[in-house]
Design brief:
Layout lengths: L1 E3 L7 E2 L4 E2 L4 E8 L4 E2 L4 E11 L4 E2 L4 E3 L13 E3 L4 E2 L4 E3 L2 E2 L3 E3 L4 E2 L4 E2 L3 E3 L4 E2 L4 E2 L3 E4 L4 E5 L2 H24 L1
Parallel strand pairs: 1-4, 2-4, 3-5, 4-6, 5-7, 6-8, 6-9, 7-10, 8-11, 9-12, 10-13, 11-14, 12-15, 13-16, 14-17, 15-18, 16-19
Antiparallel strand pairs: 19-20
Bound molecules: coenzyme A.
Coenzyme A (COA) binds next to strand 19 and strand 20.
Protein name: Gamma carbonic anhydrase family protein
């Protein structure tokens, strides 16, 4: 895998994290215990920081980046992802904040300043515009994005289960190494 420092700051990788050989990570990134980063993922913590929580998985081809500070936005937009989040294949997460137990469907785009509360399902291909707040317990889909419906109890349970499935999968990959 390619892990590079930027301005003297290197990614910090937690215990039992799996990072595929083809992933690239630069700069101020912290990845917590049992997370997994799958093939061809690019994470760039250069002009702001990136945080990835415990048991969170970032699937193949996803791109994670941030926005620098400016006069208008003195903190810029870091990227903060909580625990037990599933980021599906080929997602774009840019300068946003994701809580815990979220599924970001394949090909979704989440833009600067968006805040996704805990227990949210973002459908495949959804575009989350800048600064939107996605309310806990709902399914969001589409472009333009809409709050489609409340999640059922079993769908909420699946959000956590999806993350646990990926913990098991990454443990199998780690055992092969
Ligand atoms: C959201 C999802 C779970 C569908 O759930 P579902 O139970 O079939 O959805 P519903 O039947 O309740 O659909 C609700 C509405 O949203 C629409 N819809 C569902 N998924 C949609 C999507 N991704 N984009 C746009 N509209 C979508 C449905 O067509 C339906 O529209 P209608 O009310 O006009 O008929 C599924 O489409 C999805 O996006 N899954 C993501 C899977 C994924 O990416 N996993 C990560 C990789 S491992």
């Amino acid at each position: 895998m390619t892990i590079k420092s930027y301005k003297g700051i290197s990614p910090t990788i937690g215990e039992d994290v799996y990072i595929d050989d083809s992933a690239v990570m630069y700069g101020d990134i912290v990845i917590k215990k049992d997370a997994s980063i799958w093939p061809l993922v690019a994470v760039r913590g250069d002009v702001n920081h990136v945080r990835i929580g415990e048991r969170t998985n970032v699937q193949d081809g996803s791109v994670l980046h941030v926005t620098r500070t400016s006069e208008k936005f003195p903190k810029g937009f870091p990227l903060i992802i909580g625990d037990d989040v599933t980021v599906g294949h080929k997602c774009m997460l840019h300068g946003c904040i994701l809580g815990n137990r979220i599924l970001v469907g394949m090909g979704a785009i989440v833009m600067d300043g968006a805040v996704v509360q805990d227990d949210v399902f973002i459908g495949a291909g959804t575009v989350v515009p800048p600064n939107k707040v996605l309310e806990s317990g709902y399914l969001y889909v589409g472009n333009p994005m809409v709050q489609k419906r409340k999640l059922s109890d079993s769908e909420v349970a699946f959000l956590k289960q999806s993350a646990l499935n990926y913990v098991k999968l990454k443990d199998e990959y780690l055992a092969e190494a």
